Amino acid sequence: MDRELEGRVALVTGAGRNIGAAIARDLAAAGAAIVVNARSNAAEADAVAAAIRAAGGRAATALGDVADPAAAAAMVRVATETFGRLDILVNNAAIRREIPFAEMDFAAWRDVLGVCLDGAFHVTKAALDALRASGHGAIINIGGLTGHTGAPHRAHVVTAKAGLAGFTRALAHDLAGDGITVNLVAPGMIDTARGPGGSATPHAPGHRAGRRTLVGREGTSEEVASAVRFLAGPAARYVTGQSIHVNGGAYLGG
Prior knowledge:
Blueprint: E1 9-12, H1 18-29, E2 33-38, H2 42-54, E3 59-63, H3 69-83, E4 88-91, H4 106-134, E5 138-142, H5 146-149, H6 155-175, E6 181-187, H7 221-232, E7 243-246
Parallel strand pairs: 1-2, 1-4, 2-3, 4-5, 5-6, 6-7
């Protein structure tokens, strides 16, 4: 693949660091102009956009909470007003917290589902007209290993990620006639920054203690981004409604 996304525009939510930032950089390397979304950390979003521009790409930033429909609409407007179109949407924004279900209140439950699942709904709805106009629109939702296997102390996260898998399959049916493909990439056992500014969990998630990968190592954000780049590109126009697992074989129960 070499500049296969030239002339296209992508919006990546939750792209200030880790997997989202790697996706933004890889799509830019493929030639796409990128709208880098972060919830509130302007410095992180600006740094990702600056790195893309320094490498010769085009990028803009759009701060906003995907759980807010008005903010979701504003992100899409940044794409269409700055770059004239929107072809690719990556719903990556998420909150990953750990708490035993017995201690979880409804506010904590709704906070996670509001970002992971409702956020994907809001941004997709806001982007729909632009994606339809693209002629080769692609939506890639970022799920997770535990959305398929379950995990302790993550009822809200597991439910949200499992919901994204169902959302993906449903939209694949609804949007096929508009020329829009819809797929999900489910990362697992990825080495990412944690703690303040990185993840709500300051250490490796507890559910990892009983898992191992078949390949003998954790994955990288860039390896997840490679799967997203493929699904966003012209080589994947016959792929829709699929969940692609990027977890080194951890899903097989190793």
